[in-house]
Amino acid sequence: MKWTVLIIALMMLLCTNAFGQMNPYSSSTTGGAPTPSTPSSAESLGLQVPTDVTTSQQAPSAQESTQTLMSASQDAAYASAPAESRAIAANPVYNKMIVPTGGYAPNSLYISYAPRTVASCNLYANLPLWMKTTGTGNIWFYEWYPSGMLDTNYAGNVYYPGWYKRWFFADTPGWHILQYYCNGWSNYAYIYVSGPGGYWVNPHPSQNPVPYPYPYWDSQITYTYPPTGHTYYSYQWTTSQGN
């Protein structure tokens, strides 16, 4: 009888640890941001890595690169689908509306173009994000890294409901989960970032305090790594602590 009880207790402990490891994502926020619900992993949702991988050719304009949030329109969000992705744009697999616990998300978040919510890209690629808000107020943007770390950013204040745009930068291989808050939560958006050369990489890499090294460019570029607030420079780089 004692052995039976011990075996049952051990099985319960193992099950508890397994369930704890299925959702490693942090919900700790900074700066007074609302606390989000813990998202489900892409693996637990059965999401497959999309076959149409976005390269690093897209990039924000010089004006957009200085802004965290830009006004947009529904026409622009839907029209931004590349010609070769028109068929994929209608694929329900990539347009899943995955919402937080409770089943209600008044705001919408799309990747690359509306109504897409699951996408993939290469390391160092830029992807436009389209946000449809139903209310006004402060916008807080959330990004869960493959390690489970949560990066929270204040994106600005909107005075009118409508469409807005910002940019995603693929700085770490693996699944990234995105969401925002503006007087209510948005759906989750999932982006899989492929490693150097487009090859598959471990979707749960160990936490690295610095981003992956940049490939060579003719001119020096800079990038502020959100989780640490450090500024990095291509090849010959130094670091400076952010605010």
Name its key features.
243 residues, alpha+beta, Immunoglobulin-like, 2 domains, four-stranded antiparallel beta sheet, 12 strands, globular
Structural overview:
The chain folds into two domains: 164 residues, Macroglobulin (MG2) domain (Immunoglobulin-like, Sandwich); 31 residues, no CATH class. With 243 residues, the chain is of the alpha+beta class. It contains four helices and twelve strands; from the N terminus they run H-H-E-E-H-H-E-E-E-E-E-E-E-E-E-E. A hairpin with a 5-residue loop joins strand 6 and strand 7. Strands 1-4-10-9-6-7 form a six-stranded mixed sheet, with no helix packed on it. The protein has a four-stranded antiparallel sheet with strand order 2-8-5-3, with no helix packed on it. The C terminus is likely disordered.
Strand order of the largest sheet: 1-4-10-9-6-7
Largest sheet composition: 6 strands, mixed
Number of domains: 2
The average pLDDT is: 76
Structural class, from secondary structure content? alpha+beta
- The coarse overall form would be globular
Q: How large is the count of helical segments? A: 4
Assign the CATH topology of the largest domain: Immunoglobulin-like
Oligomer: single chain
Low-confidence stretches: 4-21, 198-243
Measured distance between first and last alpha carbons: 61 Å
Helix fraction? 10-25%
Alpha carbon gyration radius: 19 Å
Number of strands: 12
CATH class of the largest domain: Mainly Beta
CATH architecture field of the largest domain? Sandwich
